[in-house]
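Narrative progress, year one. The postdoctoral researcher (J.K.) led the effort to move from monomer predictions toward full complexes, under supervision of the PI. The following entry was the first complex the group processed end to end, covering 288 residues in total.
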Amino acid sequence: MSIDDPRFEDYLKTFRPVDPPELTLKTSRRTSGSLRFSWRWACATAVILIAAFLIWHRRPDRLEVTTPGAQCCAPLTLGGANASIFGTASTTEALDRMVFRQQIELPKGQQSALSVLGQEKAEL
Amino acid sequence: MDSTREITRLYQQHGAALVLFGTTIIGERSMAQDAVQQVFLRLIETDSIQRASDPAAYLFASVRNQLLNETRVRQRSVSLDPDAAWFDPPERDYAAEGNLRRALSELIPDQRQVVILHIWGDLTFSQIGDVLGINANTAASRYRYGIETLREIMCSGEKSNVNR
């Protein structure tokens, strides 16, 4: 081989550098990053939807509890009667409240003990 | 996605020359391959190739910096691996490949880097100046001396082979 100046570069270029191995794209970091991101969004959305569903379905109950007039619909108990008598200025007023309180709407087929007793003819 | 495709294309275009360049800096081909891979993975993660005005020069400079950092961290002197092939020789002339590799190993590192960047990296002297932090004239001068020395070493190697 004779290597003269003008051809030397061309000769050198006939040697090709050994190809490196395939680039192992660890795009997992990026892909998994975006996947993680979308998973977070999916989880957050699911939590919000579940919370909204639960709030929507529990709302009537909560309203019943928080409505001021709701207490008048509660069943009359001995403790409640005592509290009513001792909580008001006169006993008559307390009794009137108990008697003329709003009736609870019982489910169909059920009736309150007071109404049953009211229907009985008591023999004195 | 487009940048990943662009980076893959750059790897196919410059990967071999980058590994060769890295091998002559660090001495071991496997370490040079690792450095090149790390540079490309970092490019994918950071998308920094989009900001590079000259991607080829940027890649060679990145590989060089990566390897110089490694040699600094390891505080080791670099000796070139005499056994690993650097080139696919024309017509499977492995004796000529060995002769070229030996001649490149005998060049002083500054000249060797310039020769490799110009011949196999296809970089201009201006780009080489950017990669190595020198001016283009210095790069051209180192190349001229380097190629002359390389030619002499290779010719003497050829003669000694013929005499045998």
